[in-house]
């Protein structure tokens, strides 16, 4: 018996094991992509989209203005040019950019050019941000489709993406924070204060009135 004959069974076993591992190993996860949108109060948009399968993270912040790394107080006071916005990180193999945009337009009042619901002013306007011509064309097609469904003019602009500045930690995951704060309703957890704010602001009622069964988050 030659040396090759002696090691042949070992070589075959190794090859079979390697082939089995390759067949059973999970495919590499698709790299995450990001989508930036402005839909009024960023607490609400963050709370909505973190429920979507395929969304890995939603960060509240500011974009579209001239001031670098602005504070929440600066933006809401006006004059910075920024929108309250969110940056959505998502797995495109699970949920597409197009699907997220369809959901976004149906989760806001895209007919309002002066703010959203009880929040008025430039920082609360809606917008979609894109980084290349392909994204712009896709967003325009989705906007046209939504406008036809709604039967009203959608004023949400499609803008070139610029720097995104995350808001400070107190504004991240506000809707599920257990920290106690003082509100006009008395001491409340942030999560409770968020629910009271959302209800009082009339967000879900207006979205349901506009979109009916197409509204993906109203009342969730």
Q: What would your notes on this structure say?
A:
The protein is an alpha+beta fold and 220 residues long. Helix content is 38%, strand content 21%. The protein has 7 helices and 10 strands. Helix 4 runs parallel beside helix 5 (133-150).
Detail the topology: elements first, then pairings.
Layout: H1 3-24, E1 33-39, H2 42-49, E2 55-63, H3 72-77, E3 83-90, H4 97-105, E4 115-116, E5 119-120, E6 126-130, H5 133-150, E7 158-160, E8 164-166, E9 180-183, E10 186-189, H6 190-201, H7 203-211
Parallel strand pairs: 6-7
Antiparallel strand pairs: 1-3, 1-6, 2-3, 2-8, 4-5, 9-10
Summarize the entry for a quick read.
The protein is α+β, with helices and mostly antiparallel strands and 220 residues long. The protein is built from 7 helices and 10 strands. Helix content is 38%, strand content 21%.
Question: What proportion of the residues is helical, as a percent range?
Answer: 25-40%
Strand count, sense and closure of the main sheet? 6 strands, mixed
Strand content: 15-25%
Question: How large is the count of helical segments?
Answer: 7
Rounded mean pLDDT is 90
- In CATH's first tier, which class of the domain at 33-172 applies? Alpha Beta
Oligomer: single chain
* Overall 3D form: globular
Strand order of the largest sheet: 7-6-1-3-2-8
Span from first to last CA? 73 Å
